[in-house]
Specification:
Largest sheet: 5 strands, mixed, barrel
Strand content: 15-25%
Number of strands: 9
Shape: globular
Order of helices and strands: EHEEHEEEHEHEHEHHHH
Helix content: 25-40%
Structural class: alpha/beta
Number of helices: 9
Radius of gyration: 17 Å
Length: about 250
């Protein structure tokens, strides 16, 4: 059994360095993969559904028999704080279409991870764009009831479903529902789905009052990354659940 782990942002890749017996490569280019261990493939996808779908297909072509969407997410439920761990029990598209996760694998993962951290389960919503304001998040929550959102997990889940492979989404909250994102961050992605530092600098030059806000969201992002690094230590137990593919 080989597990393909799809990661959207370069800044999230290092959270998997704590995976036991990992063979780390410092510079992984977008759209490429490495074997972290003999039975774990890491694919750096870039942000967005199209990139995520391509990354899932790449992992499957290299032998992946189950998939994990890994990284950060934005909270929709007001009780979720930065660093809280969301283990999605379903993936929800904006039109209401649901894609399930493997129920047995999900329950196993919740048992393993819940021994060390609080695990929140619920729907993870697919977002086609960056949702930047608390008002937008509140409206989306009232409409969908989803706990959190990201831009990749739904596409990966669809790929897994197409090939009848087990799937999990493991996400740590980087921004709470009550927080507006800085404009500099909302427009930071380039056409390839990577964070463009020059865009951030240009935006801050025009709106220097955003700098403290950007520093704050950076601190929240680091909290989320530390939670993912902690969870990565337990991944061998999570992915070793053989019944997941029965």
């Amino acid at each position: 059994m080989i597990t393909g782990i799809i990661v959207a942002l370069a800044e999230e890749l290092s959270t998997l360095k704590t995976l036991p017996n990992v063979l780390w490569e410092r510079c992984l280019r977008r759209g490429k993969f490495i074997f972290l261990t003999n039975d774990v493939i890491l694919v750096y996808s870039g942000a967005g559904a199209q990139n995520a779908r391509k990354a899932a297909e790449l992992a499957i072509s290299k032998g992946a028999t189950q998939l994990i969407s890994w990284g950060c997410a934005g909270a929709l439920h007001h009780e979720l704080k930065m660093g809280d761990l969301v283990l999605a029990d379903s993936l929800l598209d904006s039109d209401g279409t649901q894609t399930p996760v493997n129920a047995a694998w999900h329950e196993h993962a919740k048992t393993i991870l819940g021994a060390d951290v609080t695990v929140y389960k619920g729907a993870l919503l697919n977002s086609h764009d960056v949702v930047s304001t608390a008002q937008e998040k509140q409206a989306i929550y009232e409409k969908t009831g989803a706990l959190a959102l990201d831009m990749e997990s739904y596409a990966i889940a669809q790929a897994a479903q197409h090939y009848a492979l087990p799937f999990l989404a493991i996400r740590a909250i980087a921004d709470p529902a009550s927080m507006d994102l800085p404009i500099a961050l909302s427009n930071a992605l380039n056409e390839e789905g990577e964070v463009d530092i020059s865009k951030i600098i240009f935006s801050l030059a025009r709106n220097p009052k955003e700098i403290p806000h950007l520093i704050q969201i950076g601190q929240y992002f680091q909290i989320a990354k530390r939670k993912l690094s902690l969870v990565a230590e337990q991944l061998p137990q999570v992915i070793a659940f053989e019944s997941a593919s029965d």
